[in-house]
Structure formats: structure tokens, C-alpha cells
Amino acid sequence: MTVTTAIIPAAGWGTRMLPASFSVPKELLPVFDRPSIEWVVAEAVAAGIERIVLISGRGKSGLMDHFDRHPHLESILTKSAKDEAAAEIVKRSKSCQFIEVRQGDARGLGHAVLCGELGFNQDRVAVLLPDDLYFGSPSALSELITLSDSAPEKGVIGLLEVAPEQSRKYGMVGGVWRDRQMQIDTLVEKPEPENAPSNFAITGRYVLPRQLFDLLRNQGSGALGEIQLTDALQTLAANKGMLGMVPSAKRYDAGDAEGLLIASLRCALDHGSDSLRARVQAELQQ
Ligand code: G1P
Asked: Which of 50, 117, 161, 203 makes a 20 to 30 Å CA pair with 99?
């Protein structure tokens, strides 16, 4: 059975995005012409995901609203001959089944993912962290699902090579490369550079077996006093195995203002009209 459910943890405060995220969920800040989370949902849907469990928190109800129907607005758009815009709303809301689970306490990424178990009844689940945007084809999640199909009992994660001093920002992995895959044996959350097992970092794309939820339930606090997904994955690596690969698509960090801006420019160049493309290129050359 393939992977049709995804968990998107989106309960975080967005402290790296302040002051922009003070009263607007950072996932609703735009990348080009739509909220950043819509790009993540589109990637999931393109990879065959049919149900998204959105882990939200206080002040984040706008996330579900974004993917809801807007009957009043739809009728206004239709009356003003903007049928295409009205149809877009319907299409967005039907692209997937959305379920919201609130994470009452901020107890870390592992806890957030565990909250998503409520909406899950299959053998494997995808997890997409909305700070990480991937643009390009094939989509990052679809590549990871293909790898997971070859070893469904193992966990699969997206990797990114980073400079050694960046290790403090990421979960870092170590293991043995075979072709494009790393057989991961070590995962450490945000280590000092001298303790990082390699220069490969975990990015926000995972395909994980159901067993993960049992591991998370028994997982004590780790780095920053939080329940870390990375620590549960270390146990999974020892029990069933973990595979990693660097997706072909390019990854953007939309979790801070600089990354959001760069991702926006990339999207404008990829999805904008010819005239916008020319304008962006001309502006950047000045
Ligand atoms: C989370 C994970 C970390 C991973 C990162 C990728 O950290 O805990 O292992 O490398 O996402 O973006 P966060 O950025 O939420 O602190």
C-alpha cells in the first residue's frame, strides 16, 4: 500500500520570522503569490497524498481557513466574472482531505508528529516540515516515497549537505553511502560541528513506518528539553533501518525572512509571466 497520509507540523511560533510572524502564522506568509504552506501541500498532493493532518496551535486557525471553501467570496468573484479565481478556491479545498489537530503544549517536533497519530490509520506516513520548500521535478516527496516503496519497514528522510558550522541548526546523520542512498546508522539533533557524524543534515521530508508512533510515545526529552523526532529515528535506525537521499529538487529554507525572499524570487521566475520574469531579472541586475 502506498503512502496517502501526510502530517504537516505547523504549531511553531515562528521566532526566526519575527516581526513578520507576530500576528500572522509564518506558514501563511507569501512565497510569490500564495502562502508558503500551499507550496508544501501542492508537493504532497503531487506525490499522491490524499489526507493531510495539520498540526496547529493557538493563533493558527488561519491555516485551515486558507484551505476551506469561501462561499461568500466565491459568489462575489463569480458575479464579477472572475470564475477562474472562484474555481481555484474550490480546487484548493478539494485537493486533499484536511484534518486539524491542535498541539496544546509546545513539547517539540516529536510530540507534534505524535499528535498527528489521531488522523492516521495506515502502514506509513509522510511528514513534511513547512519551513522547507522544495522546488523542481521530480518532487522531493515523490522520490522519497519511491525509495520507501523499496523498503517500507524502514524510515526514509531527505538529506542536504551543509557547511560544518551549520550543524547546530539541523539534525545531522552519519552512515554508509550506496549509490544515491545513505544507510543511516547515526542521527544527532543539532550537534556542535565536532560532534556531527557527517556534513549531511536532515531536511523536512520524511516517510516513516507506523512503528514511529510507538517510539515517540516512549521517547524522553532530548535537545532543548523537547521530544525530538530525530531521537526516535535513531531508535528506528537501530531496529528497522533508516535510509537517506538528497532529493533532486532544490530546497529553500522558508523559515526566515531571507530564505522566504529567495524562495519567492525562485517562484516568480518559475511561475510568473514572461513580463514578470523579465522585470525580476532587470531589477536584480541594477
Ligand atoms: C527540525 C528538525 C531537524 C531538521 C530540521 C530541518 O528542526 O528537528 O532535525 O534538520 O527541522 O529543517 P527545526 O528547524 O524545527 O528546529
From this structure: 203
CB 156 within 8 A of CB 243: yes
List the chain pLDDT tens, one digit each, 286 residues.
789 999 999 998 888 999 999 999 999 999 999 999 999 999 999 999 999 999 999 989 999 999 999 999 999 999 999 999 999 999 998 999 999 999 988 889 999 999 998 767 789 999 999 999 999 999 999 999 999 999 999 999 999 999 999 999 999 999 999 989 999 999 999 999 999 999 999 999 999 999 999 999 998 888 788 899 999 999 999 999 999 999 999 999 999 999 999 999 999 988 889 999 898 888 878 7
32 dihedral zone (left: phi>0; alpha: psi -120 to 50; beta): left
Choose one of 16, 111, 129 to mutate for the ligand 1 pocket test, by most ligand atoms within 8 angstroms of C-beta: 129
Instruction: Give the dihedral sign, CA 161/164/167/168.
Output: negative
User: What structural domains and CATH numbers belong to the chain?
Assistant: 5-285 (3.90.550.10)
0.85 cut: is pTM over it? yes
Distance 85 CA to ligand 1 centre (A): 35
Ligand 1 pocket (Cβ < 6 Å) reads: 109, 129, 131-132, 170-171, 189, 201-204, 229-230
